[in-house]
Amino acid sequence: MPSSPSLATGPAPASPPRAVRDRRADLIVVLVALALAVWVTSGLWRDPNVRTITVNSSDQALFEWLLAFGGHAVTHWDNPLFTYLINVPDGVNLAVNTTITVYAVVFAPLTYLIGPPATFLVILTLNLLATALVWYWLLSRHLVRSRLAAGVGALFIAYSPGMVSHANAHLNWTAGWLVPLLIWRLFALRRAGHWLRDGLILGVLVAVAFSIAAEGLFFTALALGVFVAIWALHPANRVEARAALPNFLRGLGVTAVVAGVLLSYPLWLHFAGPQRFHGTGFDPVIHSEDIAAFAAFPRRSLAGEAGLGTSLAPNPTEENSFFGIPLLVLTVVCFVVLWRRADPHRRATLWALGALALIFTVLSFGPVAKVDGRRTDLPMPFDLVGQLPVVNAALPARLALVVAPVVGLLLAYVVDQLRAAPPRHRSTELAWLLGFAVALVPLLPTPLLTDEREPIPRFITSGTWRDYVSPDGVLTPVPLTVDIYPDGQRWQAYALSHRQGEFAIPGGFFLGPGGPDGRGRIGPVPRTLSALMDQAGRTGLVPIVTDGTIREVQSDLRHWRIETVVLADEVHGAKFEVDEGALLRTGTALFGEPQRVDDVWLWRIPPADR
């Protein structure tokens, strides 16, 4: 098997007839990638301001808020990485959250023009499309000669089960287009005489990746570090690696300096700033990959629609492997065929890819192995490394996302080999076609599930709220804003993106301090008022209100400096239906009779109580 083009040289220039065919192939891949991106997100395109992703409306609301707040912060010269608009009075350190700062800044004009929900949808669709196209560019221009091979590999990676799963509202994890760019620029550091420029470019790219998907950047860096180490230590590559090492290290040094300068403030906030924490608010045992999940089919796929999907993931947004048995078998066959026909240098690459996939597969099992939903007593390697700084803030299940690009590369390499030297027997060619069809067709994605969500009240959209909240004052919806009740941040996002002004809210959906042993938690530590309203909205039962309860609620109102409490006619619950009647009765018991303003019930809090 001839060696594939290297990242340093690229394929040979195409002859004119082939160039025409290649341009036609490029266009086909672009159209297919675009069609799949729109297909996956089609439920939202019906009406982005009304529709929401069924299984993850809370994260969608969070990213919409991040887009609105980021654009507002930039246009008003505010700090985009720390805010007191949520979690009054302590504020939120957004550097330890998913800030998508670059997206918020770049798309700020669009957010002001069409609103956060529509901008969210545009970015989500572009993420899927760009991931496919950038992987296709890397494969077709640097790694394989066949455009068909590049298309197969790129489309699989971009619409793999993990990517489609994270398309359930994760603007950070669907930004998979960053990965091939990082790979390209990392290997460019080998070039002699360009280490300064190449290190500068990679440093800027690292800063951009950190500002969009810090956890994804961390996983990519780990994966590339493992791959490069194994590849360089292979006997077939030691001479080449030793020769390239000085330039490579110089370039990495420049990268570290440039990225360090650009990220100095975000990194300080992340590790030493206010409202920081260590670890995360998620249980690594729950958020680890089930061993059986690698052989299972994802829910948003043709196989899942046929009833073959499973519930082995902690939630529908975390189906990070789910390749299915046919694809696992095909991947092993591809690896064996490539290995048998490879020269020593290609075998070194295959060895590094195989080891990389195996290492990240095992690490994704988390601290304790699970098989088909049942925990075992078998400790896993992640139990040793999971306590390390930075690693302890990562979800082990997501390490499985590294495996999909490895599978895509192997598929591309095999198709490239078959195109270069077609099988001598037609039966062999048909067997390969059948194998690819059986493995990949069941994984074809189906559209994300969407529903209508409760509208933002006219009280907010008309700007009436400004008559009831002082400048920079505090308003709260009930139930108070947390991940399962995202209305407060949705309302705030609307006000910010429509230039109505600012109001602050207690609580919010964010990661902050307050968890056990100094670890992080999701949202603020509950107080009496938030607990009572959650109980009423969740159960439909009005809590017993005593004089002691009233005093505790008044203490909460003073702590949060709340001026106005608002109950909408329709409250959005991300996980369950909310009983607005019970909320109204509970609010009346706590605050007295409400007044009707536009389409909301409203309580004014006397200055003495705040």
Automatic annotation (TrEMBL):
The chain crosses the membrane at residues 27-45, 94-114, 120-139, 146-164, 170-188, 195-212, 218-236, 248-268, 321-338, 350-369, 389-415, 427-445. Residues 68-390 form the DUF6311 domain. Keywords: Membrane, Transmembrane, Transmembrane helix. Pfam families: DUF6311. InterPro entries: DUF6311. This is DUF2079 domain-containing protein. It comes from Micromonospora trifolii.
